[in-house]
């Protein structure tokens, strides 16, 4: 029983670190995910990769594709497909707002963070983002370095 409790965790916070480097976030939303079978167990084990994920609209509904949730180790033939499309659950008002933002030039929707909320439900934080250019990346790195230097001088 103690091994079971140690393996599964409600304190899951998986971030897409590459997203902050590659994109400038315009707006963020928290969406639920429609999961099947053993996917939640793999998420609770922390076996998720958000790096290649992206979101798209299909008939007015938002889907996420490219998120890799590893197969559950204890699962049998009921195990889930690792990179299937998953429906995101948002309010209609949020969907229309996001869709209107996406119709602008150069914006995309990317998964930024996957976490389990206090009720035990898996949530995906998505960001409406604009791609950074090379000079933007250099600028953000400079800002981080300056901030780090100031913190070091203070203490």
UniProtKB/TrEMBL annotation:
Keyword Cytoplasm attributed: yes
Example GO BP: trans-translation
Cell compartment(s), UniProt: Cytoplasm
Keyword Transit peptide annotated: no
GO terms under cellular component: cytosol
Principal location class: cytoplasm
Gene Ontology molecular function: any one: RNA binding
InterPro entries: SmpB (IPR023620), SsrA-bd_prot (IPR000037), SsrA-bd_prot_CS (IPR020081)
Keywords: Cytoplasm, RNA-binding
Pfam families from the UniProt entry: SmpB
CDD domains tied to this protein: SmpB
Protein task: Required for rescue of stalled ribosomes mediated by trans-translation. Binds to transfer-messenger RNA (tmRNA), required for stable association of tmRNA with ribosomes. tmRNA and SmpB together mimic tRNA shape, replacing the anticodon stem-loop with SmpB. tmRNA is encoded by the ssrA gene; the 2 termini fold to resemble tRNA(Ala) and it encodes a 'tag peptide', a short internal open reading frame. During trans-translation Ala-aminoacylated tmRNA acts like a tRNA, entering the A-site of stalled ribosomes, displacing the stalled mRNA.
Family as reported in the entry's similarity comment: Belongs to the SmpB family.
NCBIfam families: PRK05422.1, smpB
Protein name in UniProt: SsrA-binding protein
Organism: Fulvivirga imtechensis AK7
Phylogenetic placement of the source organism: Bacteria, Pseudomonadati, Bacteroidota, Cytophagia, Cytophagales
């Amino acid at each position: 029983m103690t091994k079971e409790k140690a393996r599964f965790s409600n304190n899951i916070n998986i971030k897409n670190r590459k997203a902050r480097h590659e994109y400038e976030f315009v707006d963020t939303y928290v969406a639920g995910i429609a999961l099947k079978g053993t996917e939640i167990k793999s998420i609770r084990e922390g076996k998720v990769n958000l790096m290649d994920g992206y979101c798209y609209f299909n008939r007015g509904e938002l889907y996420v594709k490219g998120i890799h949730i590893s197969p559950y180790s204890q699962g049998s033939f009921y195990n889930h497909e690792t990179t299937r499309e998953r429906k995101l659950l948002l309010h209609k008002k949020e969907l229309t707002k996001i869709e209107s933002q996406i119709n602008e030039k150069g914006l995309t929707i990317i998964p930024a963070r996957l976490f389990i909320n206090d009720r035990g439900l898996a949530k995906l934080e998505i960001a409406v983002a604009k791609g950074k250019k090379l000079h933007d990346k250099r600028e953000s790195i400079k800002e981080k370095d300056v901030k780090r230097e100031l913190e070091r001088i203070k203490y």
